[in-house]
Amino acid sequence: MARDLSTDLIHHPYQPPAGFCAPQPGVFKASTVLFNNVAAMRARDWRSREGYTYGLHGTPTTMQLEERIATLEGGRHCVLVPSGLAAVALVDLALLKPGGEVLLPSNVYGPSRELARNELAQWGITHRLYDPMDPAALADAITPATQLVWLEAPGSVTMEFPDLTALARVARERGVLTALDNTWGAGLALRGFEHGIDIVMQALTKYPSGGGDVLMGSVTTADAALHERILGTHMRLGLGVGANDVEMVLRSLPTMALRYAAQDQAARQLAQWLQARPEVARVLHPALPGSPGHEHWARHCTQAAGLFSVLLQPSYTQAQVDHFVDALQLFGIGFSWAGPMSLAVPYDLRMMRGDNATLQGHLVRLCIGLEAVEDLRADLSQAFKSAVG
Ligand SMILES: Cc1ncc(COP(=O)(O)O)c(C=O)c1O
Questions:
Q1: What contacts 180, CB < 8 A, 6 or more positions away?
Q2: Which residues fall within 8 angstroms of residue 238, CB to CB, at 6 or more apart?
Q3: Alpha carbon of 122 to ligand 1 centroid (Å)
Q4: So what's the pLDDT on residue 316?
Q5: Which tens digit of pLDDT belongs to each residue from 233-276?
Q6: Element (H, E) at 366
Q7: Buried b (16+ CB within 10 A) or exposed e, 182-204
Q8: pLDDT at residue 281 greater than cutoff 60
Q9: What strands, in cross-sheet order, belong to the sheet with 362-367?
């Protein structure tokens, strides 16, 4: 029976020949997944790596990236979510129950704390802050209600690097799960599972994307049972990611180690140069001796991210500090990091952590991109001159 052209354009007989091979993985876009017959549809398990059921639960494209991120983190299982913050939320929602408590480092990524203050509190889950630089303080903070301890290395604004191994040991000895925000270490400088951590999340928005144009997060585990818990919540919340975004991260991943190393080198050169500037009271960069937790960084890490903070002299006014940031021409003013463009953000220290009495001055966080170091140095020099003479 002759069919209408509109039907033929949907049900077309052409099948590409098998065997196509290229360096980049193929990109599969699907909400609907087709089954050969009803029996196959009924038999297929959405959890399995072999059987696809619906685009939300995985396509060959999302699974490729999940496998690569699991390798990057040194874990075994990974799920992708639409942002780094969604990865934090997924871990919280999968593991915390009413009446339970989550412990957050006092320098935690701010929105993670806001989630605890709002949604988690509303569902009967409490949170408390602990000093990440003192494993004994974590030991004291853990109670029978504690269900999860978050770790961050370093704090993403005040840059203290904790003794992760000691913190993970304290939690493990008390039977409490640990989750690390490894956005800074990115699986390159720091591998959480080697330090006894149970769950490693990362904002793929930063180094794995590298373009400043994609939002995505990952939750990686080494333990199959823990992965199952997280995967179930991931499915019920509908946290799947779009193939176009996954494609972009898959394209960037092969250059990530090169970008990370280049941004590390550039950031260290600029951090050392800034340390000697009269406008700067202190540089907070974990790889620099004298930075809070430098000795822990040296024991845990091989590299550092291109992100650090400077404390400008306390004698400057806030208006001078703002002028300095406004006067920068190559550094964009904006959140996030790890893209090609360098960025600067002034932060109010009082908003960052409750126990920052040791940090004095005006904090400006710098994310170093891929511009030439000489040009960035010249830009910082001219901005200092413009702001403070
Ligand atoms: C340390 C850290 N964790 C998590 C996130 C959240 O990532 P996203 O912006 O993809 O939600 C960020 C974002 O800036 C971050 O800096």
A1: 150, 151, 152, 153, 164, 192, 197, 199, 200, 201
A2: 56
A3: 23
A4: 95
A5: 999 999 999 999 999 999 999 999 999 999 999 999 999 999 99
A6: strand 362-367
A7: bbbbbbbbbbbbebebbbbbbbb
A8: yes
A9: 280-284, 307-312, 362-367, 343-347, 332-333
Please report the pLDDT score of residue 374 as a whole number.
Answer: 98
- The pLDDT of residue 47 is 75
Q: Is the CB of 83 under 6 A from ligand 1?
A: yes
Q: Counting atoms of ligand 1 from 1, which one is nearest the CA of 156?
A: 1
Q: Average pLDDT over the chain, rounded to whole? A: 95
82 pocket-lining for ligand 1 (C-beta < 6 Å): no
Name the DSSP letter for residue 249. H
CA-proximal residue: ligand 1, atom 4 (nearest): 84
Indicate if ligand 1 lies below 6 Å from the C-beta of 73.
Answer: no
Mean pLDDT of the region 180-191 = 98
336 lines ligand 1 (CB under 6 A): yes
- pLDDT(19) > 70: yes
Peptide bond into 154 cis (omega under 30): yes
Q: How far apart are alpha carbons 241 and 260 in whole angstroms?
A: 24
Question: What is the rounded distance in angstroms from the CA atom of residue 201 to the CA atom of residue 14?
Answer: 42
